[in-house]
Records
---
Amino acid sequence: MDEFLAALTSIRAPDDTRQRALSRAGQLAQHGLHLSPESIDRLLIGREGALLASGRIELGDGILPALINALAPSPYLTQAELEPTLAAMQEAFYYYKSALRETWSDEALLARMTALYNGPAQGCIEAVTDALEALVRREAAQ
Amino acid sequence: MTDFSALTRAAPAEAATALWSLLRQQAARRFDSSSLPTEQAQELLRSLAYTLTFEAEAERTSLPALLADDAEAALRRGQAQLSAQCSALRRVWEALCADAPPFENVYFTDTLHSLGGFFVRYDVYSAAHEIPCSIDYPLLYPIETELLGASFLAEYLRRLAMENHFLRGFDPSECRRLFAAVYPSWPRELMNLCEPPLTNALGRTLLGLDAHTLCLGPAEQTALRSLVQGKSISALDTMLNKALGTFPLSAQAHDYFRPAAHSVAVRVNAAIQSGGLQHIFLAAGA
């Protein structure tokens, strides 16, 4: 990252992702799930790692609040798997945003991932990423 | 403007926050995404910073002041200004093409042609700071590297117009002979076409000869040597500036060519001490 962007990143507007994520986490209760503030903090730390690994910079709230919203009603999401699933899906989201060469909007990619998770992957993260890998190969071949 | 970090150091936190919000908003609008690859975010930020700086200069205000008011409106005004600037530059480029000196140097002709690509590919929204065309032809003096986007092109075209206007004052066949004296393969060489005619025209003017002809034969070379022998750089500078002042050019063009005349003074001073002027005032065209 160049000096200008780094300087700007350090003084950017307060990030209210945590607040939004906490707010979404509150809605999990109606689905019998619970995400603690500590879990949110760990997921946000994981987001930084995912962004770094995929060579990206987050300018907005990030995908976590929308991800919680999208996966909460899933019949495959259990309390035990909640945090690891969100962490893995968040990491996959940023990875495939780059792998798909910016051709998919946030909304479209999240919708595809959710559909895969709730559909053919039946809650298996590995199956979701396998399907996304196949998508990357198809798009690259076009 | 290249020192973007100075911008954030100078800008109050509110201005930096406004710039960050603009970056976020533009990423969402242009790329349907709240995150971007780092390189793309950097380029988008450079584009925004250039557009806003351009607008701040147009409005004679500071960037923090511009951002403090209504950053999004300022960005839109900057984009509109840049688009209008591009339309005006396109007309300048078209006039330059229509009235180009008839020299077959590949860098000169290719650059003139390539400049047209700028108007096709220039992206005022996401890459306003870029110069999306190939500019290889070297002007008499290089353009300051801090000039970006349409600002760079405007300055390049302004200088090229002055150089081309100057070149059109001479017989093309005499110019070609002079170019060939510098580089026998001048049509394929990376060279400025203005410098040799300018130097010889200055030499002829020093001798009180018609400067529209570029020939400096053995007799003129000898006369020039006598004229400049023993002169300091300062004295030569004065003589050459006076000679330049007789050329039928605008005040702006006189100012533009003055450093080139000074460079001739320095070279002549060095050449006197090392023996000859024949590598400065070329004998071609005789």
---
Amino acid sequence: MPQRSLNLRGKSCPIPIVYLAREMKLLGRGDEVEIVADDPAFPVDVTAWCGQTRHALVSLQSQDGVHRALVRKAAP
Amino acid sequence: MSATSEQRIAALEQKVAELTLALTERPESATAQANRLSLMVFSGSMDRVLAAFILATTAAAAGMEVQMFFTFWGLGVLRDRNKKVAKSAVERALSSIVPKGADALPLSQMNLGGLGAGLLRQVMIQRRVATLQELLTLAAEMGVVLNACEMSLGVMGLKLEEFIDYPGLTCCGAATFLAGAASGKLTMFI
């Protein structure tokens, strides 16, 4: 179970990523956060962001324009 | 533990302390480039400034340090319309051509006397895209550093006292911006 869940439906770029980053700061290493977003750019953006920040993108699913990502925090 | 190994450990500890000191004293420019984005915001157009703040907040979200240097028309973004300061007639005349704040910026194209900017603002609210005001608040929260160009402030008849309450907002010159830009990874002029 993820420690935190963020509902970012209705928010567009760059808010989903910015809010996700803010949430990650509050978490400890290994903690997970689930994000639900409908920004069409979110899947590619969250993948790029995880690559840059080294946080792990555990899963990413899209259905009917709604994207769900599970991100695990790397070392702070 | 034998005396020799204790001596060796002491010698090694001494060496580590020396190396740590040497590393911390090394100037930033001599080390690897800092993970920093430097933005020179010259434009006072809403669309351009919006792009600048989207990049700034996203970079901060990716763990980058961000500095934004506002000069000439860009200074309009930082104005607070509710703050009144005493000015000479010339300063008043000059500053009257600079937009009064983030929500008073025109579009770079198709502004149509403010009609275009108003329409874009409306569409942004409808589509729930973050406004410049929201991005400014986020930038402050994320530690994005804002600086105003001292020289252009004077040229445009503006004063620091009429700017928004943004944490750490100060005036500086081109040298300060360049020092940060030269030692960072990424610089953009907007």
